[in-house]
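Handout, page 2. Input:
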Amino acid sequence: MKVEGFLSREFPGQSRPWIYPALPQDNVLYKDLYDGLYKDEPDDLAEVISVLGEHTYVSIKADISGRHPGNKEVDYFVQLCLRTFKAVAQDEPDTDVTIACAAAVV
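Output:
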């Protein structure tokens, strides 16, 4: 399964970034494709490769709105990704979560 198609199917009527829930003025998660592991985080990249056993993958970053704790929404989204893809998730201390999926982008 391809990640961009998955996000568009799960969050219809949206494109980059995908928002959850898509309610006016009550958005909690802003999700987009992320290539920072390749560029900025070599230690995290090495860990992802050791777990997934592959170098071809795409990452999704879900930024949490500062207006909400986002715990329930993050849990839902991470579980959805982990059920759909061979993937690993990493919680970041600065209010976002990164999910690396062994999958094609589009």
